[in-house]
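Supplementary Methods. Inverse-folding protocol.

Structures were first reduced to a discrete structure-token string of length 443. This string, shown here, constituted the complete conditioning input.
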């Protein structure tokens, strides 16, 4: 579907009785290959094209979507959307994005499309090399397999206020899961990376070797007694500690009053020197886009600046509820209204590497795996199951497991100390993070 045809869908919706309309077209191709124990296990190819339409009649709106984009199907889609909107309840905050906030071209070149499209045979060879590297690690006894994939996607938006924009991106991914030990003592470890360009992925051997190392490092884990001690969250998973912050500063949460940070705008939430930077225009970024999913211009900003919370994450609807302006954080699929999301977050680094942080902490827990988080969104009380490595006098003494770490995020963020070991693994990245004392529930 070309952009002119998307504009035609919007025009047809207006002729059918809509006061305003926006149409979205998404096209995706993907190819993935998995191997296990040296044998081909799965080859999966997907191709999809979908059209979504949202129409407004007064303060009523409705959204419909479909995968048939033929002329008769488009006509039925428009008819159904308009009929649904006439019956929908009124929403005083539903609307298109304000015209003066819409992005205008030319859009920046973010270099998100890689011309290289691997064949199934090439993906199989890469996946096989990844698994072989994992199985070659001393102590690895089995494998959950290796996988390699490629994808290509294009997303287009047209609105009755005159916005028309498209952006495309490719993706390359490589992952592996290894098993170490025998019987009840088996442990799993994994590693995976994704990038817009194949050349930006680590080598297959490096991915596999890290998966094997992660599995072996967890062997012979012991339980520890409940205590309070310093906790370091390894950089591979440190952004999981920041995730609740994003939900707490989202416009919909603030509008509902269901956020533990609802009274913190403009106040210090982290220690001085800590910043959380969003850069939607990062070249080759996994979260990069020239505009948000309502067509609003996006920009680089510090969500946390020198410890201070500077903004809510707003789409058009939540901004209208709060009497503010959208911040360009709208995120939507083909069906339903927009939510909010961020793009390419980076937490600022500190002065100490991981070894230095353990030396500073003395004795405590290095978290290398997290699962089953629990959060009270109103108070910030938070807990998470985890496993990791215990250290004493700054030195690793061995793996530990069946642990729950708990605390209040307002207190945790205020005492959080970033390390210097930032590695860009995905769209959102952070160095290892030290909290000088958390409740640890063990045996």
């Amino acid at each position: 579907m070309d952009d002119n045809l998307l504009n035609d869908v919007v025009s047809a919706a207006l002729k059918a009785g809509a006061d305003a309309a926006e149409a979205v077209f998404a096209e995706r191709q993907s190819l993935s290959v998995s191997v296990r124990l040296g044998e081909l296990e799965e080859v999966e190819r997907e191709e999809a094209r979908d059209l979504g339409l949202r129409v407004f009649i007064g303060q009523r709106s409705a959204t419909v979507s479909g995968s048939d984009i033929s002329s008769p199907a488009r006509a039925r889609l428009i008819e159904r959307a308009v009929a649904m909107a006439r019956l929908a309840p009124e929403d005083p905050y539903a609307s298109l994005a304000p015209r003066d906030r819409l992005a205008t071209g030319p859009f920046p070149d973010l270099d998100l499309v890689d011309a290289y499209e691997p064949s199934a045979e090439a993906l199989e060879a890469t996946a096989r090399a990844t698994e072989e590297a994992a199985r070659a690690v001393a102590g690895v006894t089995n494998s959950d397999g290796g996988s390699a994939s490629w994808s290509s996607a294009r997303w287009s938006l047209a609105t009755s206020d005159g916005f028309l924009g498209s952006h495309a991106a490719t993706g390359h991914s490589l992952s592996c899961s290894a098993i170490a030990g025998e019987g009840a003592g088996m442990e799993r470890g994994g590693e995976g990376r994704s990038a817009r360009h194949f050349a930006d992925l680590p080598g297959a051997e490096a991915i596999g070797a890290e998966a094997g190392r992660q599995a072996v490092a967890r062997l012979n884990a012991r339980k520890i007694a409940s205590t309070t001690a310093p906790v370091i969250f390894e950089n591979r998973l440190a952004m999981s500690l920041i995730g609740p912050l994003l939900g707490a500063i989202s416009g919909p949460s603030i509008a509902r009053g269901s956020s533990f940070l609802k009274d913190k705008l403009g106040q210090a939430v982290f220690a001085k020197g800590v910043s959380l930077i969003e850069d939607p225009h990062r070249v080759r970024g996994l979260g990069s886009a020239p505009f948000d999913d309502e067509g609003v211009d996006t920009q680089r900003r510090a969500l946390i600046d020198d410890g201070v919370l500077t903004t809510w994450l707003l789409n058009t609807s939540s901004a209208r509820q709060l009497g503010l302006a959208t911040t360009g954080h709208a995120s939507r699929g083909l069906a339903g209204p927009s939510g909010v999301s961020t793009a390419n977050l980076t937490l600022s680094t500190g002065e100490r590497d991981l070894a230095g942080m353990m030396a500073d902490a003395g004795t405590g827990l290095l978290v290398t795996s997290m699962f089953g988080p629990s959060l009270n969104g109103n108070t910030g009380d938070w807990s998470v199951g985890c496993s990791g490595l215990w250290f004493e006098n700054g030195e690793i003494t061995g793996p530990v497991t069946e642990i729950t770490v708990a605390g209040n995020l307002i207190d945790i963020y205020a005492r959080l100390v970033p390390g210097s070991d930032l590695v860009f693994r995905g769209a959102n990245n952070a160095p290892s993070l030290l909290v000088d004392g958390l409740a640890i529930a063990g045996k």
